[in-house]
Write a structure and sequence with these properties.
- Helix content is 29%, strand content 29%.
- The chain has 136 residues and is an alpha/beta fold.
- Helix 1 packs across helix 4.
- The radius of gyration is 17 Å and the shape is globular.
- The N terminus is likely disordered.
């Protein structure tokens, strides 16, 4: 018999902040297909700023939301320790230095790649050891 601790993504709630409707909708569908609970997509910064921090686990942020920079939201998420990534058309040089450590996927990007990156930010749980016989 072998003991293994199996990590697993617990139900993950992802907030999508994206003003391009089809991109936001495609990302939401890709995440739901992977068992993720989706909030949004939200297209405007004021709407995103009203979401309670305990209402989601991870955020995907488009930096330019209808010509309004989403940096205040990113600053707040860093302040409270909430993981997020940028899915943006901005290249790395256009992003302020304080966000250089944040994962950035540059548009146009594959929705599946964004979904995979998001899932890596989702909290995991450790389950109790499971015994099973590998000799079967």
């Amino acid at each position: 018999m072998t003991h293994h601790v199996v990590p697993s993504v617990r139900p993950c709630r992802v907030l999508i902040i994206e003003d391009e409707y089809f991109l936001g909708d495609d990302l939401a569908k890709a995440l739901r297909a992977r068992g993720v609970d989706v909030i949004g997509p939200l297209a405007e910064l004021p709407d995103a700023m009203t979401i309670k921090h305990d209402g989601f686990d991870v955020a995907v942020i488009d930096i330019n939301l209808r010509n309004v920079a989403a940096y205040p939201l990113a600053d707040e998420l860093i302040r409270v320790g909430k993981p997020f990534l940028f899915a943006t058309g901005y290249d790395a040089n256009a992003i302020p230095e304080r966000f250089r450590h944040v994962q950035r996927l540059e548009k146009p990007c594959d929705v599946g790649a964004v979904a995979t990156a998001v899932i890596t930010l989702c909290p995991t749980e450790k389950f109790t050891p499971v015994e099973y016989d590998l000799s079967l």
